[in-house]
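Researcher: Here's a chain I'd like modeled. Treat it as a single chain, no partners, no ligands.
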Amino acid sequence: MIEFKAVSKRFGKKQVLDQVDFRLGDAEIVFVIGKSGMGKSVLLKHIVGLLQPDSGEIWVDDREVSHLGEAQLLEVRRRCGMVFQYPALLDSLSVFENIVFGLRVQRPELTESELQAIAREKLGLVGLNSSLLSRFPLELSSSTQKRVSIARTLAVGPKYLLFDEPTTGLDPVSTNTVNDLIFRLSRQLQVSSLVVSHDMHCALAIADRILLLDGAKIVVQGPPARAHL
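Model: Modeled as a single isolated chain. Structure tokens:
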């Protein structure tokens, strides 16, 4: 479970979050919807300790993360896989090396054959063939790069998936592919997904719950049918 309790954050004179409360339950897909600049991505950064709130509490399972040091935050970050707005793949590394990049640091005991097996498995989960392992990011379409970035996130075995505008810049077909992938992974792997987005259509298609962030507050919170009203 991830939970925000009365979280507030201000940058200078701008109030970005104001007494924000919400909970992400087990194996749940929650969309945070709002216009650009409304603080959606700020929510994600608080969860992994890249930002600290001015007041309030942020819980990831049994840990209140807002006052943890860097060493303690490492465990929290292992539980929370971040999928960025853009794939952020390393162009100089193959697809294989991109996928196992975090694993080489977190699990140095793994052999090359074990790393290969994990990379093939995670590519399969995102609907890609293992023949892509030797390719480089610039050889791939933007949609395929996005799926590789999700495979990289899955490789370290997170309990929570945090998506920052995952369909930005994608055509409608690719957008549907990514939406279907988020839904399938959440159900198949029983992971919780928190998705920040400006696209209500995507939220209505796959979310269990939708939160509308406006004026630094969550003004609507509920299942898709209610949030659409």
